[in-house]
Design a protein that fits this description.
Function: Converts the aldose L-fucose into the corresponding ketose L-fuculose.
Helix content: 25-40%
Strand content: 15-25%
Protein name: L-fucose isomerase
Strand order of the largest sheet: 12-13-20-19-18-21
Number of domains: 2
Number of strands: 22
Structural class: alpha/beta
Keywords: Carbohydrate metabolism, Cytoplasm, Fucose metabolism, Isomerase, Manganese, Metal-binding
Subcellular location: Cytoplasm
Number of helices: 19
Radius of gyration: 25 Å
Distance between the termini: 31 Å
Domain L-fucose isomerase N-terminal-1: 6-173
CATH superfamily of the largest domain: L-fucose/L-arabinose isomerase, C-terminal
Amino acid sequence: MTHTTYPKIGIRPIIDRRKLVKAATRHVTLGLANEVASFLSANLRYPNGEPVVCVLADDCISGMPEAARATEKFRREGVGLVVTVASGWCYPLETMEMNAEWPHAIWGFNGTERPGAVYLAALHAAHNQKGLPAFKIYGREVQDMDDDSVPEDVRAKLLQFAKAGLAVATLRDKAYLSIGSVSMGIAGCIVDDSFYQRYLGMKNAYVDMTEVTRRIDNGIYDPAEYERALRWVKDNCAEGEDPNPAELQIARDAKDRNWETVVKMALIVRDLMVGNPKLAEMGYEEEAYGYHAIAAGFQGQREWTDHFPSADFLEAILNSSFDWNGTRPPYIVATENDNLNAVTMLFNHLISHTAQIFADVRAYWSPEAVKRVTGETLQGDAANGILHLINSGPAALDGTGEQTVDGRPAMKPFWDITPDEVDACLKATSWRPTYMDQFAGGGYSTDFLTKGGMPVTMSRINLVEGLGPVLQIAEGVTVELPAHVHDKLDLRTTPTWPTTWFAPNLVPGDPVFSDVYDVMENWGSNHCAISYGHIGGELITLASMLRIPVNMHNVPRSRVLRPSAWSAFGTKDPEGADYRACAAYGPLYK
């Protein structure tokens, strides 16, 4: 597989260069910097599960020579974001970091003896004046000068900044792999190279779906892994009831061949994304390379699905945190090649390290409509109405909610998932033969119902002509309806597909989030991505780093962290200020 080198966090301890002041504050400044590095490494992981690496400057930075040496060291060590730590006054223009592509946070120690807050204020002013937005971190409570601890509020902001900054740096120089083209006229399938290059720092790769056919026909996949995968599928992926009328059902031997094909499709799409050295051993050196793709999309409908089995299995199993090789990081693959949803899933995954649910925003059910159709009154989290999130198969099996945290349903990073939880996710999933009037080539769709009570975040990137990309975010909770209520509602759509019932958190007086209907009404696409956890704050921080405005969200203001320059664009209208700041600075990569 393609080797990935993950970005590191650079830590810059800053100090006054005057001899006596330097001698008096060097020890405490280094102590603070080391505390920050230790805290971040202990609380953050890369997508492969390894602890995040922090790189400290060789010594305190008091002037331009040390600043230059630190920058050179960070470039050499593969740093992708930086945190500046100051316990007292320093010279801002002589100690600042000028790399505009490194997200930068500045923690100014709140102490009255030699206030780092004064340096923080001067440095952020210098950054703003030079067009280098930085994140300002200032603890609420005054600390004693010899206190080298990191306060809880500072820790929270450091974590939020670092999670978003690591995501930004991880995207850089990776690729999105488009397998096929536009599916069924969906605009989200149009791959905008400029968006990837200028906003994400990514490349684009393109492969026709006939390449998948060629690899199937010529056996360009690891035959030993294929046999192992097929056995695993037969043992663990239970085939559900065929929903087609008898005259449209395909024969058993054809269904068995479809299982073989969809397993091969999963292997091949993974190999296209990240490569496979086994193919080189088989004589396929070029095919072994892969495309260094951090995300991909498969067009499928209809040029593929009218003839071959649907891609639902490959999308669902690759997006999950486990397969025949055990637990592993998910491969982000979007159905119908909706690359904008793939990017959204990627954002969510890099923040949460969990698998993602890809879904249609299918319907808003008001309490009145549910009462009319089922005779029942919605209760609890569902009392104000719910959204029906459902799509044919790319929802990760983690989305069943069969994993647990503190005894409650959850979706977890792969390194925390137990074998029993993998088994439970598989047992909660039925693989239903596809509707032949929709997928004439056959295949299998996942069928499961997401457990209720999970805190989740629904999000989506959209491209708007004349504006560029915008991000929308809705934090909320999954809802579990009484079985007979779910059945009546589900049978009105496509009951062989995975369902997630979602209730967004409402905000009284908000123009969008005061009512569930308005969330549906203002959603910018037919698709969305659902991530475990309330990660809206981190997504807002990530979007600001990339200069992508957020056009709707229900994240409490206390969890909104943007560069300090954003306040210069207006403090009474944060959403408008976000738009103005993003327009003024432009995409991160010029």
